[in-house]
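Protocol check, entry for the methods section draft. Step 1: assemble the input record (protein sequence plus ligand SMILES). Step 2: submit for complex structure prediction. Step 3: store the C-alpha cells unaltered in the notebook. Ligand used here: flavin-adenine dinucleotide. Step 1 record:
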Amino acid sequence: MLLDRALVRMLPAVPRPVVRRLSERYIAGSQLADACRVVEELNAGGRKATIDVLGEEVTRRDDALALVDEYIHVFETIRGQGLDSNVSVKPTGLGLKLDRDFARENIGRIVRCAEERGNFVRIDMEDASTTSETLAVYRELRAEGLERVGVVLQARLHRTLGDVRALADLGPSVRVCKGIYLEPEDIAHQAFDDIRGNFVRTMEELLEVGGTLAIATHDEWLVDQALELVERHGLSPDDYEFQMLLGVRERLGDRLVAAGHRLRIYVPYGRRWYEYSMRRLQENPKIATHIARDTVGRLVPGGNGR
Ligand SMILES: Cc1cc2nc3c(=O)[nH]c(=O)nc-3n(C[C@H](O)[C@H](O)[C@H](O)COP(=O)(O)OP(=O)(O)OC[C@H]3O[C@@H](n4cnc5c(N)ncnc54)[C@H](O)[C@@H]3O)c2cc1C
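Step 3, stored output:
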C-alpha cells in the first residue's frame, strides 16, 4: 500500500513506453478502427459504449477543429457499422481554455451531428477550473434547443449538490462520478467516505429534480446504493444506466449485465494517450505490482514483459 502510494508519486518519471504498455487495458488503440472493434465486442456482450477521442488542453485552434472533424467521422462510422455507442467529449480538447465561445461552437457542432443521427454527446467534466464554464456551455446548448447532450458532476466537489439544483429546470442528463482530479480541501471532499456520501446525495437529488441518471463507478458499495435508490424510485432499466471504464472491474460489469441493468463502457482511443493513461494508472490499486512485473519482465528473459 505504501509502496503503491510512493509509486503513484513517481509515475511521471516512468518512461513513456512503460506507461503505454501498462495502460493498454484502458485504451482501445490509436485508431478509430481499434475502438470500433472493441465496441463491437462489448455490444456482443450486452454492453453499450461511449467513444472518447483522446486529446485535452489543446493550445491550437486547429487541433480543436481537427477533433470536431474526428468526432463527426466517429458518428458516421457508428452509424455505418451499426454500433451501439454514443460519444464523450472533453471541453479543453475542444478549446475551452482558448476561448469559451469557440469551444461552445465546437461542442455544438458535435451535438448537432448527434441530433441528426439520433445519437448523444456526454460532455466530460475536467478539473475544477473548468466546472462553471462547462456547465454554462451545457446550459447555452440546451437554450439553443439541443437535447441530445448531457454533463458530468463530480461527487468530490462541495458545489455539486448546488449544481444539480441549478440545473433542475433543464431536466438534465447527468453522469455522476467521484471525480478523478484531486482538488484542494476548500472546494472538495478529501475523505473517501465523504465522497461516497456526496455521491449518494447527488444521485438522490438528481432523481428528485427529474434528471436522468448515469452511475459511473466501480465501487461496489456505491453500485449497491444506486441499485437501492433506483428500486425505491421505481425506475425501469431504461431509465438509468451504469457506466464503467474500459479495462476496469469487468466482473462487476458482468454481474450488472446478467441482472438486466444497462451498462455503458467508456472506450477511449487516439494518439494522445499519455494524460488519460496516467490518470488511470494513478488510481489502479495494484500499480506497484504491475510496474514491478513489467520491470522484471523486461530484465529477465522469458519474464512477463510484452
Ligand atoms: C464511465 C466513466 C466516466 C467517467 N468520467 C469522468 C469525468 O468526466 N470526470 C471525472 O473527473 N472523472 C470521471 N470518471 C472517473 C471517476 O471519477 C473515478 O475517478 C474513477 O471511476 C474511480 O472511482 P470509482 O468510483 O470507480 O471508485 P474507486 O474507489 O476509485 O474504485 C473502486 C474500485 O475499482 C477499481 N478501480 C478503479 N479504478 C481502477 C483502475 N484505473 N485500474 C484498476 N482498478 C480500478 C479498484 O478495484 C477500486 O478499488 C469516470 C468514470 C467512469 C467509470
